[in-house]
Specification:
Length: 335
């Protein structure tokens, strides 16, 4: 079974060789690599072309910068395989990624196979892992509950094998920052068999220049508003029983943006930051009380509920405690 490995590349000259070395070193050999250069202006294109010359199963495509969604779409269009997987050019994978995913797919004729992810610091240290139990899901209501409420399904497109036809008719837009949020829920409406395996096969490097990171606070703010409109439409059409998830999502967005303002080094006008903070507070005052009365509230993560409670007492208290917690974590990490 041939697999297409799609690798978006944008200004990753420091990490793309490590990424490609981990892919060409797979113990499974029936695969192709599709490199999509999204208008890089560093040495990434030259590095990619060198790998094309050295390996017969790598194809390279380049165009002006259009953003990650269009890059993913172009990779899918160039794929000649029935199954695809995605690897960020700042990440790397274990040698048995493809062989393990393919074996798991064949055993149950799965449409999606998802493995665990290790989150790695730039110094190579293991920061955390997203591990999952071996499981098989065929009920769409269960997958949506696992994805949004339990968070036992990873919301990233990385570390997974997909039947390519699942992406047919999926709209890819340049508007949203997070393709994982925009695309994955729609993909999950099309599957018949979803399999999770406990193996941790993908290493996601916490690197500041990743193609999926680095947005300004004002861009994040607008992005999350647009994303929430899409999610509300999704729940209305596909999972109305989970519609109260949006109460949780909008409440948590307030915390997220407030905290990002605290840690951001963005050069943004003070009046814009003040407006964002006020709208975050207003959003929280609107949705958090409704969340407390929702039947879904008890099912959400305990840590998130503690954060929400702190923020409800005082946003300043929440920010203060989060700052102290980060200092404590950093101190312990350095020991």
């Amino acid at each position: 079974m041939k697999v297409s490995v799609i690798v978006p590349v944008y200004n990753m000259e420091i990490t793309v060789s490590r990424c490609l070395d981990s892919i060409v070193g797979q113990d499974y050999k029936d695969f192709e690599v599709i490199l999509i250069n999204d208008g890089s202006n560093d040495k990434s294109p030259e590095i990619c072309k060198d790998y094309v010359r050295r390996y017969g199963n790598i194809r390279y495509f380049s165009r002006e910068n259009k953003g990650l969604p269009y890059t993913i779409k172009e990779g899918l269009d160039h794929s000649i395989s029935d199954f695809v997987t995605f690897v960020d050019s700042d990440d790397y994978v274990e040698p048995n990624l493809l062989s393990t995913l393919v074996k798991a797919q064949k055993e149950v004729n799965a449409d999606i196979v998802q493995s665990g992810i290790a989150y790695i610091g730039v110094d190579g240290s293991l920061k955390s892992e997203f591990k999952m139990k071996n499981s098989l899901i065929t009920d769409k209501s269960k997958i949506f509950h696992a994805y949004f409420i339990e968070k036992s399904v990873n919301n990233t497109m990385a570390s997974a094998l997909f039947r390519k036809k699942l992406f047919e008719d999926i709209p890819f837009s340049q508007d949203l920052l997070s393709i994982d949020i925009q695309v994955m829920p729609l993909v999950l409406t099309k599957f018949s068999v979803f399999r999770q395996i406990e193996d941790v096969l993908y290493n996601a490097v916490q690197y500041p220049n990743s193609v999926s990171r680095g947005a300004r606070i004002d861009k994040m703010y607008e992005d999350r508003k647009k994303r929430n409109i899409l999610l509300e439409s999704f729940f209305s059409q596909h999972a109305p029983e989970l519609g109260d998830y949006m109460l949780y999502r909008k409440s948590m967005d307030s915390l997220f943006l407030y905290d990002k303002i605290r840690t951001s080094g963005d050069d943004i006008e003070e009046n814009i930051l003040k407006k964002i903070k006020e709208e975050c507070r207003q959003c929280f005052r609107t949705y958090y009380p409704k969340l407390l009365n929702s039947n879904l509230y008890i099912q959400f993560d305990k840590k998130d509920k503690i954060k929400l409670k702190l923020f409800s007492i005082s946003p300043q208290l929440y920010i203060c405690i989060m700052g102290l917690y980060e200092k404590w974590m950093n101190r312990n990490t350095n020991y």
